[in-house]
Amino acid sequence: MSDNAQHIADAQAPAVEALRISKSFGGVHALEQASFSAGFGEVHALVGENGAGKSTMIKILGGRLRADAGELRIKGTTATLRSPLEAHAFGLRTVFQELTLLPGMSVSENLLLNHEPRGGLGLIDRRATDRKADALLAELGIHHIDPRALIEDISLAARQVVEIVRAISQDPDILLLDEPTSSLVEREAQWLFGHMRRLRDAGKCVIFTSHRWAEIIGVCTRISIFRNGRDVGSFDSIDEDEAITLMTGRRIDAYFPTPAAHTPAAPQLETRALTGRVLRDVSLTVAPGEIVGVGGLAGQGHRELFFTLFGADKATSGEILIGGATKTIHNPRDAIRAGMALVPEDRKSEGLLLPMAVRDNLTLAILPRIAHLGVLPLGLERQLTSRIVDALKVRTPDVRNAVGNLSGGNQQKVLIGRWLLAEPSVFLLYDVTRGVDVATKREIYDLILRLAAENRAVLFYSSDAEELAHLSHRVLVMREGAIVAQLHNPGLNAEDVVSAAMKVALVS
Ligand SMILES: Nc1ncnc2c1ncn2[C@@H]1O[C@H](COP(=O)(O)OP(=O)(O)O)[C@@H](O)[C@H]1O
Ligand SMILES: [Mg+2]
Fold first, then answer.
1. Domains annotated on the chain, with CATH
2. What number does the ligand 1 atom closest to the CA of 226 have?
3. Å from CA of 51 to ligand 1 middle
4. How far does the centroid of ligand 2 lie from the alpha carbon of residue 21, in Å?
5. CB within 10 Å: which end of the chain, N or C, has fewer?
6. CA angle at residue 62 from 79 to 253, to 5 degrees?
7. Which atom of ligand 1 is nearest to the CA of 178?
8. DSSP class of residue 261?
9. Does 117 contact ligand 1 (Cβ within 6 A)?
10. 452: pLDDT strictly greater than 80
11. Comparing C-alpha atoms, which of 473, 341, 451 is closest to residue 392?
12. What is the mean pLDDT of residues 300-329?
């Protein structure tokens, strides 16, 4: 079949059919025989909790990832997409969750990449490029973005808008948008919804993912719900409570240990009206032996809270107290000295030095304390690291192996273990089980409970509502940088956490 034949659409066929699509990353089943289909003249929402497999599905449809198994049909034709470019041949454009613009290039160069107007010598005509981009932006109703500005100099929201403009301006038959509103303000979101409706009315197919119930209901004509890598149903209409039940329904493989009741005590960690770029008046306490969960929709300031506590982000006002004493925390070194440890989600860029040996990664946090002249006595180092490796069941044949060769879950254990050696009184755990296989997740849960049993204060953010509900003594729900709800165990379940986060979102 020639490429041209692919353009001949079967008028009766759905725009996109995903049939029993599976995709694994190591031991993590991101999609397991997930199916859904979307037609022309439809705005179709893919809905599910964090980790449900929405982005993986969008990447497969958009040609960014290959499925391990299953079939993809576009306009009735079986499609094997090896790249986003091959998806373009089907009239399909994608705005991925992670932005793909080139930061060192201008807005107009990004908008017209590979379609730049050229001058007599075949060289790119910059002025014409800017003019064309100007016209493009204006045509789509965008007047606040300068096409000459470098991507790296414009706001995250503006970049998201540029990414959307680029996709829409190429006149797709099928438009995929992964969490397109997560960094947009209300006005820009409304702008986008206007274009989604326009495309729908023009008989195109729009597929998008979102966490925000109000916007899902406001713009979509059909909803497919995903849970734990599987589709659990498609609906023309469904109410929020029913959708939440389907999104969070008990997983077969879920296992959560129950934390021991903790005795009320003076807080080990306390913040008073902590305020910053994103944070607004955050006051919280965590007692020794207490596990306090932090939840809410993505991007509501959780990350800023954790990074501010650890001195990696700046507070403009407010106080941080450890063991009842106010601490001045300007950088991570101050935080470590005050007795805090941070385990971030992004192991690759922030936590571990992947090429370094397991052993060196483990002793990094305590080197300044126990090493004389910066060198750790070899005997002591060996003794300390094998203790951690044994205690945490880190699966590595040798502590001298590079951490980068371990599985994600084992890397995470190395990170936590590294901190144990420093004996912090406060553990800040930031989405530590994301992307970790089920068996290792259980070991990390046990480890979290053990930290509390050893009387440390644990502040624990997770994108998984079920984890929060089961492992925390209390859950704080954040919205727009502020704590807006507090939920108490015993008796909490994932529905309570998700609905607190979504209901709060509806009110505003
Ligand atoms: N590149 C990757 N490597 C390892 N795990 C991944 C990768 N991409 C996704 N995952 C895992 O697959 C699952 C589904 O992720 P994702 O599709 O991003 O979900 P969603 O978009 O619904 O939040 C999650 O457990 C996630 O951690
Ligand atoms: Mg996603």
1. 3-91+172-248 (3.40.50.300), 102-169 (no CATH), 267-339+425-432+457-508 (3.40.50.300)
2. 22
3. 5
4. 17
5. N
6. 95
7. 21
8. P
9. no
10. yes
11. 451
12. 93
Q: Mean pLDDT across the stretch 260-274?
A: 93
Tell me, rounded to whole angstroms, the distance of Cα 348 from its chain centroid: 14
Ligand 1 pocket check for 230: Cβ under 6 Å: no
pLDDT digits (tens, 9 = 90+) for 390-440: 776 766 666 666 556 666 677 777 777 777 777 889 999 988 887 676 667
Q: Pick the atom of ligand 1 nearest to 49's CA.
A: 22
Q: pLDDT band at residue 142, thresholds of 50, 70 and 90?
A: very high
What are 304's two structure tokens? 């800023």
Task: Let me know: does 22 contact 29? Beta carbons within 8 Å.
Answer: yes
Length of the chain: 508
* Proximal ligand: closest to the CA of 49: 1
Q: How far is CA 382 from CA 140, 386, 388, in A?
A: 62, 6, 10
CA distance 191 to 119: 34
List, as ranges, residues with CB under 5 A of the ion ligand 2: 54-55, 97
* DSSP class per residue in 323-360: TTEEE--SSHHHHHHTTEEEE-S-IIIII--TTSBHHH
pTM of the model: 0.63
